[in-house]
Amino acid sequence: MPRDNTGPTPRQLPGDVRGFVDRADELARLDLMLSQDEADAMVPALCVIVGTAGVGKTSLAVHWAHRVHDRFPDGQLYVNLRGYDPGSPVTPEEALDRFLRALDLPSAAIPVDVEASAALYRSRLAGRRMLIVLDNASSVGQVRPLLPGAAGCLVVVTSRNSMPGLVARDGARRLTLTMLPEPDAVSLIRRVVGDYRPADDSAELTELARLCARLPLALRIAAERAAGRPSMPLRELIRDLRDESVLWDALTAGDDDEADAVRAVFAWSYRALSADASRLSRLLGLHPGPEFGAAATAALAGLPVGVARRLLDHLVGVHLVEQPSTDRYQLHDLLRAYAIDQVRQHEDAAAIGAALRRLLLWYLRMADAALTAIMPAAWRFPVPADTEEAEPHGFSGYREAMRWFERERANLVAATRAGAEAAMPDIAWRLHATLSRIYANRNQFDDWRVTGTIALNAARHVADRAGEAEVLESLGKLHTQSRDVAQGITYHQAALAIRADLGDRAGEASSLNGIGLALLRDHKLVEAQSYFARTLALASTLDDRGWEAIATNNLANVSAELGRLEEAEQRIARALSLYRELGDRGREGEALRCASRIQRDSGRFLEAAQSMETALSIAHDFDNMPWEAWWLIEFGRVQMALEEFDHALESFNRAAALHRRLGDRSREAEAWNATGEAYRALGRYQEAVEFHRRSVDVHQRLGEQWQLALALGNLASALADTGAVTEANNCWGRAERSLEGFEDAAASRLRARARAASGTSDR
């Protein structure tokens, strides 16, 4: 199968290891494994590197991956599964989400179900030659969903677990990594100390290596401390470390001598830090996410960013913190566990709570700033005002804010969870309330659902009814947007009841509008109109021009669906005027889509084309795929009206492709239905039939009766064009049955066509 090179080439490997120790035998065995696996063209290559903590599994895997990466031209994927981290390990769902996004698939297109995600992942890897490193796995269950399904890829797994299931069932080749041979351990120390200590005695270096259990992680930390004290005799450093080891032995059960040796080295190195560096080192154990930047660190420790960065650089230099990329830091799982122990010993509960609150408030403030840049017109909750304020930060514009948001997504979910677990529910639900607006803007359903569940429980735990209503509304939008309309309405109604009880009139307007939107998606036009009318009445009472614009725009959509074009045009003109006055360009674009539909139905095709060109330019300015995908369907319909059928086909095809990437099956099916119409206009009837069939299948599975009826009507017409009259009549009968309960003019017209075509009479 030829490789698909249309997407980006992931290059996710961490940087190669500085001063990598020989490990010549192990590297040779890995080379041999790869050559043997490449000779077997039937299965993907799978290698498991196992060994105790700190033995250098990650270093070996990353170093070897860099050596062979040119044999995998389609890129490299890497994930630290954190299987032994004191915090939550990375789940297969989370890892699949990261990998599929790296393979140019937006999060919204990634199924929630792990089996479906894994199947999609295997499909994306099929025909590619990629190198996949799964670092720090704790179980076969964590790994197996991340394995490719076909030959061509190489998977390297590192684990403290021997992974017998992968060997027995998946054909993995296992390499067990042991402690460094004594000469290599001494060589590693010499490489680190370099020219700082050329006169050190070999016997003393050997003793230092023994005290470090010949484990690379401990050896590097000890060697960096020796290099930092070139005038201190090595025997004194060894004596200090020996004393620390004896103390540690007395404090532990001694069941894991290698791990105890590593932790003794941590303690020995930690005690040599300055007061500021040691405090920061232990506070980092409180960070709930997988990695962090200098600004988040500064908030956690209550330091200026510059000071935090200098301390982080020092901790990186002594190997107590890892730096996988520019301004991104992380802790080895053993170091995180040690930091957590130290923070519990040296910080009281009040200090720990204050540090964590500073950090979570920083994430909340940054999320709020990102929302301001991404959606300037979005309504925002006030951020809790604590006495200790983090350094202020804003974003230069939309793209910088989106880059920050994507980089911090995992941390933002972790921060929401940490807020709930640390009895800071005000932060937990506000983080979700802020993030949900961005999630909705990007169709990022998975993070939206996870943080929403956490936030709802947090708000209810402290009986914060306003917060509960906000989260309920967010979940209502989530379910409506992900096509579980009935559940979406249930959540919106629950939010509405709370807001009515609290006398929150603006909140009521929002809930009413949410219910109306859900009903509109189901083509329940009269009911939707009543909710939008109530929203508009509340907006007028409150003199809220923002809600007036939203309600007016939605009423224009209903009027257009009902065929009341003059009424629709008056409403959309008012909505456009308000959006432009408010500077809300995103909603202006959606209003232009509605205006185009009205202009098209009125026969003013050139005006409609101009409206859509302006709308699409807004989508491009904001780099917003959901907007572009949805608006392209209307643009294609305008091109159809202008008899530009080939151009319409291009618009519909792009809309379908974008909606597929976004995971919006319903609107993808709408684009397919429109594609079928374009093929029929071009006289390519069999192709029209195939696209209409695909649309029918999806809408039927989703239970979308209105869209199903439209697709069945188009399929029936296309089938009739091919001479398949009997099947066409069957489709018309199915379309009529799908129209039960719809009484608007468009439904009546389609029902009449169905009855006329199938020869049935009114009943």
Structure characterization notes:
By secondary structure, this protein is mostly helical. The protein is 67% helix and 5% strand. It has 34 helices and seven strands. The strands form two sheets. The protein has a five-stranded parallel sheet, sandwiched between helices. A two-stranded antiparallel sheet has the order 6-7. α12 packs across α14 (305-317). The two termini are 55 Å apart. The relative contact order is 0.05. Mean pLDDT is 88; it is low at 1-6 and 250-255.
Shape: globular
| Biggest sheet features | 5 strands, parallel
Q: What Rg is obtained from the alpha carbons, in whole angstroms?
A: 31 Å
**Strand order in the largest sheet:** 2-3-4-1-5
Structural class by SSE content: mainly alpha
Number of strands: 7
Number of helices: 34
**pLDDT averaged over residues:** 88
Low-confidence stretches: 1-6, 250-255
Oligomeric state: single chain
Summarize the amount of helix as a percent range. Answer: 55-70%
Give a quick rundown of the structure:
The protein is built from 34 helices and seven strands. β3 (131-137), α5 and β4 form a beta-alpha-beta unit.
